[in-house]
Amino acid sequence: MKFSWKNLLLWSLPIIVISFFLWQGIFAPIANENNTNLTNSRMTYGRFLEYIEMGWVKKVDIYDNGHTAVIEAIGPEIGNRMQKIRVELPASAPELITKLKKNHIDLDAHPTKNNTALWSLLGNLFFPLLLITSLTLLFRRSNNATGGPGQAMSFGKSKALFQIEAKTGIIFDDVAGIDEAKEEFEEIVTFLKKPEYFTAVGAKIPKGVLLVGPPGTGKTLLAKAIAGEANVPFFSISGSEFVEMFVGVGASRVRDLFKKAKENAPCIIFIDEIDAVGRQRGTGIGGGNDEREQTLNQLLTEMDGFEGNTGIIVVAATNRADILDSALLRPGRFDRQVNVDIPDFKGRLDILNVHAKNKKIDKNVSLSIIARRTPGFSGADLANLLNEAAILTARERKNQITLKEIDKAIDRIIAGMEGTALIDSKSKRLIAYHEIGHAIVGTLLKDHENVQKVTLIPRGQARGLTWFTPSEDQSLISRSQIKARIMGALGGRAAEEIVFGESEITTGASNDLQQVTSMARQMVTRFGMSTIGPMSLENEDSNPFLGRSMGNNNEYSDEIAIKIDSQIKLIVDECHKKTRDIIKNNRVIIDKLVDLLIEKETIDGNEFTTIIKQYTKVPQKI
Description:
Layout: H1 5-31, E1 42-43, H2 45-54, E2 57-63, E3 68-73, E4 83-88, H3 94-102, E5 106-109, H4 116-144, E6 161-163, H5 179-193, H6 196-199, E7 208-212, H7 219-230, E8 234-238, H8 249-263, E9 267-272, H9 275-278, H10 290-304, E10 312-318, H11 326-329, E11 336-339, H12 345-355, H13 367-373, H14 379-395, H15 403-415, H16 426-444, E12 450-455, E13 465-469, H17 479-500, H18 510-525, H19 558-585, H20 587-600, E14 602-604, H21 605-613
Parallel strand pairs: 1-4, 2-5, 7-10, 7-11, 8-9, 9-10
Antiparallel strand pairs: 2-3, 3-4, 6-8, 12-13, 12-14
Helix pairs in contact: 1-4, 5-7, 8-10, 12-13, 12-14, 14-15, 16-17, 16-20, 17-18, 17-19, 18-19
């Protein structure tokens, strides 16, 4: 542990308190005994008087201001030999002195030593003073340190982490897959380093840049790269650190943060998760949060108020831009909004190259193949993928990561942990027909994605899985593609109906049916792909303050609602009929594939397609 006076005081306080109570309870009473050498033998006062009458007492020493006596006596009870015995004397015994003189007994009195006052002073004054002094020093040092435990009078100060040259260890070369966003910030860093290039043509430095995108796409990583590249004062703080239970504390911290920033301008302020403090004012059931709104008002004023903030660039990150206050998003506060989206194939390949630098990957593994198999993966997902593959490699005591471990890692991330393989039974055969139904319908449809793998190994809640390789561009999907996906999802249920009969269908298609209904409804209500016409009857936007479902107010009549339901049913019925026909026409192939799947438990997509081509024509995929 690093030495510091604060740590020393923290450890010393309990010792001081314990020592004080030990002194008061143990050592102080011992000190008040006047250091008398009293014997352990005791005698009652009445028996002492009898010993005097019998002439057995030879000498008496009086201690403790006449309360204690030590006698030297001989008697049959003590073996007829001289011994010292302690006697507690009563408060008033005037006849004792007379009896002692009458029997010519040697008497001596020992006055109390005058050191009780000193020990009392030490016990009652020294330790409390030491305790008070220690507490004073502790609180004084804590108040000098930002964020210390004794910061009772300075909790309104900013908790921003401040570094002149932020040594994050990350530069722009370490950020991959978000080239457009990186380009924006490279320009800002250039402005901070060489502003004359821009001021020469009348350009002004942007006041704020908002990073918007899904979780895990690299927004915070990009901010760390800015800190590593800029070589200017860099303030980093989370939006939640402005919000406190005390009224006015958040606004005070905003003022303190921008005060520090102005003293060190030009500089960068990075606010992570700004939606914690920047959400719309006066929203939500029961009104808004007054403390949070005061904090937001102060932030708006500091970013673009009467005084201005020349030389300060505010960079903020959020994945919930829809709930931010409109006054915060306007030009002059956040001049630019940079979208950090899910990376495309090139971006994923660049990200994999960055994260593969410190991992031992077999030379036969192609990162481009992994990039093609992971559309929709964010940068965080890809980093986790290679890390999971490395863990699996270490678990199997291998020296290098192979494609096998990467395949397992992809399956684990998408579908969950691998379960115990099913035993050969009716249930396993039914699941095999269900999965082969999905795979063969997807293979024989021109507009459906290719089959990547069919497996009976359980993962997560699924007892079997059929993997399809999604296309790269998911932004534009045609009507025929959506219908092909509906038919592919219905393939499992259709196989159960054809092979086992209507009475033997199972609950295994419950998730498939949810997807089918959702896709058919979107075709009717959002994409205008029905006889109702090209109208958007529902939208995906909702009020996040009322809950995602409570905010959907459908503005159409009951007559239109009936038409929507009938069109959804019409689409699903049509797709269901075509799917059943595909299963009936390819029953021989299905039976052979099921037997093979039960035997091998996993069939690769290329092997699956090769087998089907032996019996029927496979259409050329788009």
